[in-house]
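Lab notebook page, bench 4
Experiment: in silico fold of construct C2
Operator: M.H.
Input chain length: 149 residues
Purpose: comparison with the prior construct
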Amino acid sequence: MEIKEVKEQHTLMKRFTTPVGELSNVMGTVYGEIAAHMQQHGIPFAGPPFALYHNMDMEALDMEIGFPVLNAVEGSGEVKAGKIPGGKVATTIHAGPYSTMEETYTRLMGFVDEKKLTVTEWMYETYLNSPEEVPEAELRTEVFLPIAE
């Protein structure tokens, strides 16, 4: 666990609300829509896919998911241009299945409390590999808690 400075990232994303139980079904479809838009318009990927959570309401997660891009680009339809703000974050790598992410968040929040930091209401994750490519035990997800200034 560490505190580091991250740069603002331009993104192409889609924002939606979903119950946590539907998340795995929805995410694959939405990532596919955004990737198709990027391919159709010749927009290169500039990093791993992300999910940004605007709340932690497990019945109605307000979130955006997408891909970083090198520069501001235009979306179309429900695929929109977005940004992940830069600044200081508390971060760690979660290793293993997504179903155990809560443990990593609990440890990271303990780190934040220990350091007496205040974090924003929103947080995000980047997916360093895919369950389509590696076994669940080898999944790597970087978790970011932005620090409120």
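Observations: The first helix runs from residue 23 to 40. The mean pLDDT is 95.
Next step: discuss at group meeting.
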